[in-house]
């Protein structure tokens, strides 16, 4: 029988220090959704195949279902809830809307986090590079074309010199 | 875009505004079914059968109940007893007896993964743990997975009370013995014997298709609260909140008015989120515990136990003259329904030959139960398998006669006035316009280059249904309008319906705030499915607009002291007329709205409307493929999807529907399939092993919209989402024939199947 233990965990989540109580059996996905109430982190498969639960952990893109909550003590975590600012949506969010890059929207948080990580690493990807980077994120509605367009449109905006 | 000359100059229709639900979806705020949180909520989990077919001899839940944190354990016996009957689900129907036995198995489990018992506990880890403490004694029974084997007299019988429902005249299908054949239907037109006698060439082939899953990324979920006053509230991700309400009422034996279904945001459905799975179980658990219960399915359970498509076996025989004229067709379609009757073979029959004007035809369809999950609707349900087989044979005929495949299809295309398989004449349809657009497309006229490359084409058809929809609109004094929708929004219907209301009133899209509400807050609305919502919901939006116009005209007439007949509502939203002194007067939409509170009150209107028209839609796809002879991998080099969409309300969303449908079809053509072992167990119930296309599996999907307005709709809408999944299997199969000279008769054509063909020859 699995043993259950309560853990007190403190992490920096979307720029704020958060302390939460988790079950020792919780994945990071479960902890973020059910203990911290960040419902933008989505569960599609719970075994690392769909990317709907993607978050950026200590600067690296991970599937949060494949990380244990117990591992994130002291970590820095970025989720979709942290992308927008009081000034407005991030360029990727805005471009996803304008390019019609989402339909049902369940995969969108994962695609946004994955694309955020891509553009940090490679601000000027080719279409093929975008397609390969996003191969860990499943979308069943769009056929991906409009997602690729949105990522490229955001990349262009983000490369433009600030006014 | 190919526009027809008669297309009116719309102001809102044809533009590309941002969806009303968009910001919530890119910020993570959109609330889906699994996001529901209620005070005191318990978590439910389901134990599933390890066998393909077994009798349940004993269930002992005592150890599970004794686990601290477990509040209830339920089985089929906790549901009210059900009589056989018919329950309309929108896309298909269900027998409540079978539905409840699918939700939690009765005396037998009928497929690997069939739900057996459910637990509610204070934490989901405890609920999972408790499942392992439930003792079930099974007596494994012989099982049958293959549809043709299931039809044999020697096959293991799933339901001993099942008899064949024969909807075909002059056949000798026995109606009085135990069988797995739930239904035999036939449609006939002309005289096939005379037709084949005229033929210069006759090709007859047999095809099989594997089972495919809808593959929505959001697993099924459901939260229920059975209040102490008997009111039941259900929060769920569904394509049809009213369909869930009616299924719940039947399964729980409760009055409809006691059940409120709150449709949460839905993370994809494609037909699969119409039947209930978890919601009734959550309700029963809630009744037992007095607390709200939330359930969601692990992905493996989604594959094991929720609606895949039918695996099919189809025989197609078609005769043609030397000049390419098709003269006769004889089809036999056998669809596995899964554990309970009700495959989509009916639509498979009706769609199979719809792309052709064919005088002599006979189509037999069989609905067959097998020890696999009960099938559910999936995008153009039933059509891809039957049309794939027809499109493959037509391709072989064109090749044998050395006729361009699109020229041959144009020669045999249906048009307004010719009759379809049922003998009914077509209204205005776009079959020829689609074929012509393909022939004129840059892709079709481009050169193929390289070795082991090939090009294939195929057509596809779907009816696009009408059915019942409801909406309400409240006109506010500032000129904005609250639009209340009964249709759940899967992929953009808030936007497409708001746009049609805006068009009908001559106001801007931004003035309309659409929202999807619960079943207590709007009139009856059938499921979002069958590409009916923009079509039928658009009809309702148009009628709402007409009613608002009428009320505003009456108001202006009252203000001006004249009869309403002396007042005109212009398509620009400006009301004009003469007052009682003969002086010309006008109100803009905003001006009249401002006067509403002081001249008789606000305006709120509701429309419930059922339309019997359809929006027949044709699609044609072109696929270029390259085959790697060492690995068997197929690369889709270029892909174009052409479709008659009637009128594209929101062209970007229309393109998105077509690209998404084509991507699913490419998955079915090349890489997706259910895989059972020799014990009848599903062995690839994960996204890793059930290989849906990812971004680098696909080329850009070019879309060409053809707009032949539907005469059965005020804005010419046909419905869009279904047709694009139909052509890919045949287009790619035909491209593979072009590339490597092999005709495949099974889909998907995986690398293994390619190598099976190539290796012995090399």
Structure explained in plain terms:
The complex is a heterodimer of chains A (163) and B (762). Chain A contains five helices and five strands; from the N terminus they run E-E-H-E-E-E-H-H-H-H. Chain A is of the alpha+beta class. The longest helix of chain A has 15 residues, at 145-159. Chain A is globular, with a radius of gyration of 16 Å. The model of chain A has no long low-confidence stretch (mean pLDDT 96). With 762 residues, chain B is of the alpha/beta class. Chain B contains 19 helices and 31 strands. The relative contact order of chain B is 0.13. The mean pLDDT of chain B is 96. The chains are: A alpha+beta (163), B alpha/beta (762). At the A-B interface, helix 1, helix 2, helix 3, helix 4 and helix 5 of A face helix 1, helix 4 and helix 17 of B.
Core attributes:
heterodimer; A: 163 residues; alpha+beta; Ubiquitin-like (UB roll); globular; B: 762 residues; alpha/beta; Aldehyde Oxidoreductase, domain 4; Aldehyde Oxidoreductase, domain 3; 4 domains; 27% helix
Mean of pLDDT of chain B: 96
Broad structural category of chain B: alpha/beta
Q: What is the third-level CATH name, the topology of the largest domain in chain B?
A: Aldehyde Oxidoreductase, domain 4
Could you say how many structural domains of chain B there are in total? 4
- Shape assignment of chain A: globular
β-strand amount of chain A: 15-25%
CATH class of the largest domain in chain A: Alpha Beta
- Assembly annotation: heterodimer
Structural class of chain A: alpha+beta
The two chains with the largest interface, and their residue counts, are:
A-B, 64 and 63 residues
């Amino acid at each position: 029988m699995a043993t259950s233990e309560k853990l007190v965990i403190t992490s920096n989540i979307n720029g704020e220090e958060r302390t939460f109580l988790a079950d020792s059996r919780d994945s990071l996905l479960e902890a973020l959704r059910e203990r911290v109430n960040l419902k933008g982190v989505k569960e599609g498969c719970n075994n690392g195949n769909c990317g709907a639960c993607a978050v950026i952990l200590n600067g690296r893109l991970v599937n949060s279902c494949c990380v244990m909550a117990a591992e994130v003590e002291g970590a820095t975590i970025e989720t979709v809830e942290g992308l927008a600012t009081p000034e407005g949506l991030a360029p990727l969010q805005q471009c996803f809307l304008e390019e019609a890059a989402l339909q049902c929207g369940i995969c969108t948080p994962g695609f946004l986090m994955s694309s955020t990580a891509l553009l940090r690493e490679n601000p000027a990807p080719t279409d093929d590079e975008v397609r390969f980077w996003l191969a860990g994120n499943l979308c069943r509605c769009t056929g991906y074309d409009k997602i690729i367009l949105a990522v490229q449109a955001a990349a262009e905006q983000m490369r433009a010199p600030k006014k | 875009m190919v526009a027809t000359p008669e297309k009116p100059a719309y102001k809102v229709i044809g533009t590309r505004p941002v969806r009303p639900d968009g910001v919530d979806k890119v910020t993570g705020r959109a609330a889906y079914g699994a996001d529901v949180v209620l005070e005191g909520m318990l978590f439910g989990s389901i134990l599933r059968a390890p066998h393909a077919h077994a009798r349940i001899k004993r269930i002992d839940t005592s150890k599970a109940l004794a686990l601290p944190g477990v509040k209830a354990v339920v089985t089929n016996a906790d549901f009210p007893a059900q009589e056989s009957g018919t329950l309309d689900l929108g896309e298909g129907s269900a027998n409540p007896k079978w539905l409840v036995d699918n939700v939690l198995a009765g005396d037998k489990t009928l497929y690997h993964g069939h739900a057996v018992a459910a637990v509610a506990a204070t934490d989901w880890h405890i609920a999972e743990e408790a499942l392992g403490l439930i003792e079930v004694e099974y007596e494994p029974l012989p099982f049958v997975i293959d549809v043709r084997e299931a039809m044999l007299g020697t096959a293991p019988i799933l339901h001993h009370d099942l008899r064949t429902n024969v909807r075909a005249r002059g056949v000798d299908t026995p109606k009085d013995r135990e069988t797995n054949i739930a239904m035999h239907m036939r449609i006939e037109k002309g005289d096939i014997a005379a037709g084949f006698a005229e033929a210069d060439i006759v090709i007859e082939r047999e095809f099989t298709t594997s089972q495919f899953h809808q593959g929505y990324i959001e697993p099924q979920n459901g939260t229920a609260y059975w209040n102490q006053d008997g009111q039941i509230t259900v929060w769920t991700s569904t394509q049809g909140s009213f369909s869930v309400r009616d299924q719940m009422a039947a399964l729980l034996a409760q009055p409809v008015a006691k059940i409120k279904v709150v449709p949460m945001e839905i993370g994809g459905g494609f037909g699969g989120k119409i039947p209930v799975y978890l919601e009734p179980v959550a309700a029963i658990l809630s009744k037992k515990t007095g607390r709200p219960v939330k359930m969601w399915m692990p992905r493996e359970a989604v594959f094991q136990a929720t609606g895949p498509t039918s695996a099919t076996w189809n025989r197609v025989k078609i005769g043609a003259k030397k000049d390419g004229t098709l003269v006769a067709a004889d089809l036999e379609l056998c669809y596995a329904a899964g554990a309970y009757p009700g495959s989509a073979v009916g639509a498979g029959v009706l769609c199979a030959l719809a792309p052709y004007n064919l005088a002599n035809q006979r189509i037999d369809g069989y609905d067959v139960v097998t020890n696999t999950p009960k099938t559910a609707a999936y995008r153009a349900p039933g059509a891809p398998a039957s049309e794939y087989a027809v499109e493959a044979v037509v391709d072989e005929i064109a090749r044998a006669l050395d006729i361009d495949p699109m020229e041959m299809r144009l020669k045999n295309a249906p048009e307004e006035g010719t009759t379809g398989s049922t003998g009914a004449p077509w209204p205005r349809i776009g079959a020829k316009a689609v074929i012509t657009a393909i022939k004129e497309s840059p892709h079709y006229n481009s050169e193929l280059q390289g070795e082991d490359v090939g090009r294939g084409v195929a057509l596809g058809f779907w009816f696009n249904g009408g059915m019942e929809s409801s909406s309400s609109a409240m006109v506010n004094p500032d000129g904005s309008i609250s639009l209340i929708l009964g249709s759940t929004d899967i992929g953009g219907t808030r936007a497409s319906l708001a746009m049609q209301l805006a068009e009908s009133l001559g106001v801007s899209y931004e003035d309309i705030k659409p929202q999807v509400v619960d079943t207590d807050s709007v009139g009856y609305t059938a499921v979002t499915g069958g590409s009916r919502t923009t079509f039928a919901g658009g009809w309702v939006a148009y009628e709402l607009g007409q009613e608002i116009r009428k009320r505003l005209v009456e108001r202006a007439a009252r203000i001006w002291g004249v009869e309403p007949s002396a007042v005109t509502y212009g398509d620009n939203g400006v009301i004009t007329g003469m007052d009682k002194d003969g002086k010309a007067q006008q109100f803009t939409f905003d001006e009249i709205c401002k006067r509403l509170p002081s001249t008789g009150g606000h305006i709120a209107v509701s429309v419930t409307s059922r339309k019997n028209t359809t929006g027949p839609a044709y699609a044609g796809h072109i696929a270029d493929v390259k085959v790697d002879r060492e690995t068997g991998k197929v690369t889709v080099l270029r892909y174009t999807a052409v479709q008659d969409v009637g009128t594209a309300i929101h062209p970007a969303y229309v393109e998105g529907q077509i690209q998404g449908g084509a991507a699913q079809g490419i998955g079915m053509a090349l890489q997706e399939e259910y895989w059972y072992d020799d014990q009848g167990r599903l062995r690839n119930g994960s996204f890793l092993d059930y290989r849906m296309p990812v971004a680098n599996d696909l080329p850009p999907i070019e879309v060409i919209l053809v707009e032949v307005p539907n005469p059965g709709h005020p804005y010419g809408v046909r419905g869009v989402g279904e047709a694009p999944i139909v052509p890919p299997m045949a287009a790619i199969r035909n491209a593979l024939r072009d590339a490597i000279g092999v005709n495949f008769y099974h889909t998907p054509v995986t690398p293994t199947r390619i190598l099976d063909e190539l290796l012995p020859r090399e």
